[in-house]
Write a structure and sequence with these properties.
The chain has 296 residues and is mainly α. Helix content is 76%, strand content 1%. The chain is built from 13 helices and 2 strands; from the N terminus they run ααααααβαααααααβ. A two-stranded antiparallel ribbon has the order 1-2. The two termini are 32 Å apart. 47% of the residues are buried.
C-alpha cells in the first residue's frame, strides 16, 4: 500500500512537471499560428476543438458525472476556460516573462479561494506569503512616471485575471474528489472552447482566415493533441497533490519559459523586473510549506 502511494505521488509530480514544460513553451507555436494569420481567438478555438475531440474519444461517458458536479463543475468549466484563454492571448500580445509572472501571483489568490471554498484559515505564515507576492508585483510593475503600479497593457491585465482563474480551478480540482480526472480534463477543454467562442465577435479577423495548409494543420493538430495529453497528466497531478504544493511545481514553467523566450524571441528582463520576479517566486516556494488550518 505504501509503495502504491509513493508511485502515485511520483506520477502526480511528473504530471505537473509535464504541464509546466508544455505551458512554458506552448506560447511559441501559438505565435507561429498568429504570424500565419490565425489570431489568438481562432487559434484557441481550433486547438481546443482538437483537444476536446481527442479527449472525448479517450475519456468515455464522462457526461454521466455532470449530475454530481453541481456548481463546482460549472465554475471549473468557466474558470479554467478563462485561465487558458487569457494565458494564450496574454503570451501572444505581451512580454512572455512579465505576463507569466503576473499569472504566477496565483499563491495570493489560492490563499483567498482556499479560505472561502475549503475553509482554510490564513495564519501568520500565510499572511507573509501574501505580502511577499504583493511586494513582488509592486516592484515589478512600478514605474515612477506611470503612477500606480498596475499592469501596463491589456496583455498584462489578461495575465493577472487568468492567474486568478487558474488559482480558482486548482482549488476546485483539489476539492472535487468526486469527479474523475477525465471529467476535469474535459471540463477544461470545453470551458476554453466556450470562452474562446464567446470572444469570437471581438476578433479583428472574424471574417477572414488564411488557407489551412498542411503545415498549419499539422501545428494545430500537434498543439491540440499535446494539450489533451497534458491536461490528463496535470489533472491527475492536481488531484493527488495539495494546491499550495502544486503551485511550487508549476514554477518550473517559468524556467522553461525564460529559456524559450530568450533563445526564440530574444526577450530579456530588466533588473527591476528580475527583483520582482524573485519575490514572487519566493512567495510561491514558501506557499508549498504553508499549513492548512481549517476554520471551525
Amino acid at each position: 500500500m505504501k509503495r502504491l502511494a509513493n508511485n502515485q505521488k511520483i506520477l502526480a509530480i511528473l504530471g505537473l512537471l509535464a504541464g509546466a514544460a508544455v505551458w512554458g513553451c506552448i506560447w511559441y507555436p501559438y505565435r507561429l499560428l498568429a504570424q500565419a494569420g490565425f489570431g489568438g481567438v481562432w487559434a484557441t478555438i481550433f486547438t481546443y476543438s482538437v483537444a476536446l475531440t481527442v479527449g472525448l474519444l479517450l475519456s468515455g461517458a464522462v457526461w454521466r458525472e455532470w449530475r454530481s458536479a453541481g456548481w463546482s463543475g460549472l465554475i471549473l468549466v468557466l474558470g479554467s476556460g478563462w485561465a487558458n484563454f487569457g494565458y494564450v492571448l496574454a503570451t501572444l500580445n505581451g512580454e512572455v516573462m512579465r505576463v507569466l509572472l503576473l499569472f504566477y501571483l496565483a499563491p495570493l489568490w489560492t490563499v483567498f479561494f482556499a479560505h472561502f471554498l475549503l475553509g482554510e484559515r490564513l495564519n501568520r505564515y500565510g499572511s507573509g506569503v501574501v505580502g511577499l507576492s504583493l511586494s513582488g508585483a509592486l516592484v515589478m510593475l512600478w514605474h515612477a512616471d506611470l503612477g500606480l503600479p498596475l499592469p501596463q497593457n491589456s496583455a498584462e491585465w489578461l495575465a493577472l485575471s487568468a492567474g486568478m482563474a487558474f488559482a480558482l480551478t486548482n482549488v476546485l480540482v483539489r476539492s472535487a474528489s468526486q469527479l474523475s480526472v477525465a471529467f476535469k480534463s474535459v471540463a477544461i477543454w470545453l470551458g476554453t472552447l466556450l470562452v474562446s467562442t464567446l470572444a469570437l465577435p471581438w476578433q479583428v479577423d472574424f471574417h477572414s482566415l488564411p488557407p489551412l495548409s498542411a503545415t498549419l494543420g499539422g501545428i494545430i493538430l500537434a498543439i491540440g493533441v499535446v494539450l489533451c495529453l497534458t491536461s490528463f497528466a496535470v489533472q491527475y497531478g492536481l488531484t493527488h497533490t495539495p494546491a499550495n504544493q502544486a503551485i511550487v511545481i508549476f514554477l518550473f514553467e517559468l524556467v522553461f519559459a525564460a529559456i524559450a523566450a530568450y533563445f526564440l524571441v530574444g526577450e530579456k528582463m530588466s533588473l527591476q523586473e528580475m527583483l520582482g520576479a524573485l519575490l514572487i517566486i519566493s512567495a510561491s516556494l514558501l506557499s508549498g510549506k504553508m499549513p492548512a488550518t481549517k476554520l471551525k
